[in-house]
């Protein structure tokens, strides 16, 4: 047995690879975090290493004190997750003040959690609160059709929600609350983390203008499916507009 035999680790790796196969993760683009269930932490604990030092995140979310997250590594490539999980992903524990993490497994070779960990963490804090603890997955990808739309439409929740709902029939069912929009901001910091988590108070999808998309959900299938549905709808929108039939 190894930690790579534990189901939640296998499911996490599969989702990373599915995103790579979709073409949403050029180079080190995108990141994925999963808030583990207590029983999943116990399944993985026998494989934990001596914990690393506590590292301050610059943000906090007190409802996540003591939680464990599986995360992709900063600068790591989704393409490599399935081949080399130990260096590409890891598990971090959150401290009692919910403002710092430490590595308990993986991220070998001095790797760190994703540069977007502050955004993921704040989104987890907000989505966990508004879903009564159901939300476990935050997924950031660079799906090209959705990004292209951010150069075409006014950057508002109303415009994006209407365009996506109208482009594919199932969209109002898959994301009935619509999608929020965050204007272009420098990625990888606490400012964009705060702006995104404000949007996520209301929506489970947040567009990052000229950059990508954040999706949240209770499990890997639902969250991947949400990303897939939004991107498919954006593709249909772009196909119709570029055929001159908009
Ligand atoms: O991890 O996608 O937003 C690379 C990124 C930053
Ligand atoms: Zn990105």
Characterise this structure:
The chain has 246 residues and is of the alpha+beta class. Helix content is 40%, strand content 17%. Strand 8 and strand 9 form a beta hairpin. Helix 7 crosses helix 10. The radius of gyration is 18 Å and the shape is globular. Bound molecules: Dihydroxyacetone and zinc ion. The site of zinc ion (ZN) has 7 residues, from loops.
> How big a fraction of the residues is strand?
15-25%
| Helix proportion range | 40-55%
Low-confidence stretches: none
Largest sheet: 9 strands, mixed
- The oligomeric state of the chains shown is single chain
Ligands = Dihydroxyacetone, zinc ion
Please tell me how large the radius of gyration is.
Answer: 18 Å
Distance between the termini: 55 Å
Please tell me the overall pLDDT. 98
Structure annotation, total helices:
10
Structural class: alpha+beta
How do the SSEs run, as a string of H and E?
Answer: HEHEEHHEEHEHHHEHEEH
Globular, elongated, flat, extended or rod-shaped: what is the shape? globular
Task: Tell me the total number of β-strands.
Answer: 9
Strand order of the largest sheet: 2-5-4-3-1-6-9-8-7
Q: Could you give a quick summary of the protein structure above?
A:
The chain is α+β, with helices and mostly antiparallel strands and 246 residues long.
From the structure above, extract its key features.
9 strands; 246 residues; binds zinc ion; nine-stranded mixed β-sheet
Per-chain topology:
Blueprint: H1 7-22, E1 31-35, H2 38-44, E2 55-56, E3 68-72, H3 78-81, H4 85-88, E4 89-94, E5 100-106, H5 117-130, E6 137-141, H6 144-149, H7 157-167, H8 171-174, E7 180-182, H9 190-199, E8 205-208, E9 212-217, H10 220-242
Parallel strand pairs: 7-8
Antiparallel strand pairs: 1-3, 1-6, 2-5, 3-4, 4-5, 6-9, 8-9
Helix pairs in contact: 5-9, 7-10
The structure holds Dihydroxyacetone and zinc ion.
The site of zinc ion (ZN) has 7 residues, from loops.
């Amino acid at each position: 047995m190894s930690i790579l035999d534990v189901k939640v680790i296998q499911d996490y790796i599969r989702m990373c690879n599915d995103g790579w196969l979709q073409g949403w993760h050029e180079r080190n683009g995108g990141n994925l975090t999963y808030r583990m269930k207590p029983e999943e932490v116990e399944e993985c604990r026998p494989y934990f290493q001596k914990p690393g030092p506590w590292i301050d995140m610059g943000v906090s979310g007190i409802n996540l004190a003591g939680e464990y997250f599986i995360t992709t590594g900063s600068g790591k490539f989704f393409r490599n997750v399935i081949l080399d999980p130990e260096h590409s992903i890891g598990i971090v524990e959150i401290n009692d003040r919910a403002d710092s993490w430490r590595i308990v497994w993986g991220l070998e070779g001095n790797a760190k959690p994703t540069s977007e960990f502050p955004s993921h963490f704040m989104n987890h804090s907000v989505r966990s609160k508004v879903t009564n603890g159901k939300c476990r997955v935050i997924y950031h990808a660079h799906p090209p059709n959705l990004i292209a739309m951010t150069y075409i439409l006014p950057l508002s929740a109303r415009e994006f929600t209407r365009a996506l709902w109208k482009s594919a029939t199932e969209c109002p069912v898959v994301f009935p609350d619509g999608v929020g929009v965050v204007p272009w901001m420098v990625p990888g910091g606490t400012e964009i983390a705060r702006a995104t988590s404000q949007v996520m108070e209301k929506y489970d999808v947040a567009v990052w203008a000229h950059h990508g998309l954040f999706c949240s959900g209770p499990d890997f299938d639902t969250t991947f499916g949400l990303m897939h549905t939004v991107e498919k709808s954006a593709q249909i929108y772009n196909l119709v507009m570029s055929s001159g039939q908009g």
